[in-house]
Amino acid sequence: MYSPYLYPKPGKTRQERAIAKYLFVYHGGKNPETEAEVAEVLDAWGSWLGSMGAAVIDGGNPVGMSSTINPDGSVTDNGGSNPVSGYGLFEAPDLDDAIAKGRACPILAAGGSIEVAKAIDM
User: Fold this and answer.
1) What domains appear along the chain, each with residue ranges and CATH number?
2) 66-114 residue pLDDT tens
3) How far apart are CA 65 and CA 76, in angstroms?
4) Dist CA 25 CA 105 (whole Å)
5) In sequence order, what DSSP letters do the residues of 57-122 get, joined into one string?
6) DSSP label at 10?
7) Average of pLDDT values for 57-65?
8) Under 8 Å between Cβ of 56 and 47
9) Which helix (H) or strand (E) holds 42?
10) Backbone phi, then psi, for 60, in 5-degree steps?
11) φ/ψ of residue 34, rounded to 5
12) Do the Cβ atoms of 64 and 76 come closer than 8 Å?
């Protein structure tokens, strides 16, 4: 039985064929203020995550205020100039596809941004 994960196709390595994981790190974004806004935001996130189906590995969560541990061991509170506001982990065949998925994310409509990074399997 042929398995694309076990036996490379000509001209492609196992890594080139595998679907990659991408970490989405959300920054900023306006928090909803009313119950109606909360419901609208939750619906938007649910629709976006649902539209990606099996590509969603971990839909993620919002996060609280962060602290940064510096090389000298000191701690900086409040996440710096662009604090993290949440995360998600998704599958995509390449960075372009991951970016295309991210462009539909509700955080952008709330004024936030997304940092997209390929997770390296070790």
Assistant:
1) 18-62+83-119 (3.30.70.1060)
2) 888 989 999 988 877 788 999 999 999 999 999 999 999 999 999 999 9
3) 11
4) 12
5) EEEEEE----EEE-TTS-EEETTTTS-EEEEEEEEESSHHHHHHHHTT-HHHHTT-EEEEEEEPP-
6) T
7) 94
8) no
9) helix 35-51
10) 80, -165
11) -115, 165
12) no
Reading the block at residue 47, the tokens are 């629709």
- Residue 55 has a CB neighbour count (10 Å cut-off) of 18
Mean pLDDT over each residue of the chain, to the nearest integer: 87
Q: Tokens 């196709």 identify what position? A: 9
Report residue 60 as tokens. Answer: 């993620």
At a CB cut-off of 8 Å and minimum separation 6, what does 53 contact? none
Tokens in use for 68? 């940064």
Burial class (CB in 10 A: 0-12, 13-18, 19+), 43: exposed
Q: Which amino acid is at 100?
A: A
Q: Which two tokens stand for residue 12?
A: 């492609």
Q: Is 29 helix (H, G, I), strand (E, B) or coil?
A: coil
